Sequence to fold (221 residues):
Amino acid sequence: DAGITQSPRYKITETGRQVTLMCHQTWSHSYMFWYRQDLGHGLRLIYYSAAADITDKGEVPDGYVVSRSKTENFPLTLESATRSQTSVYFCASSGLDSEAFFGQGTRLTVV
Amino acid sequence: RKEVEQDPGPFNVPEGATVAFNCTYSNSASQSFFWYRQDCRKEPKLLMSVYSSGNEDGRFTAQLNRASQYISLLIRDSKLSDSATYLCVVNMAPGGKLIFGQGTELSVKP
Fold:
């Protein structure tokens, strides 16, 4: 099916563990984004990518790592999870100067 | 200064009211502008793109003022189903990153 999918949808992990959130899109969009949304806050950009092998920091990149070896995939890794990283994470993709389409989100809890 | 700023909410309005949201952006080179809607922390969905000439989609009208660097969204004849959070989104040039405003919550009451 065409679209953008995130996995897992829900994740509970322990402080200090490494966790990877997956994002896959089937449109061959150039741009991909990772956002986090905390209760009562808007979406804050963590990292984005303009093409395969090109990534750049957003507003809140600390504690996160991304890679984009293939156009369709944009995984986000929390190297050593902290409680402050408990959040809802959204992945999105877009073409050049066009609207973004979002995945359904991953609800991550760090205990 | 935040790159994209929106009116603080929440907006509580009766059915049938007209409500307007404003959003300002800091990068004068920005090329693309959008309004998204988000329900209950689900994924945001595109409401409408914003063009320089202004555009309308049914009860919704979006305007762009490049000189003052703000965009607006007008909702006429509000419905209960319009209750949601409205997000202003700006494509920051160069580089193509999409920056969201913090969102404005709208609650339409009977």
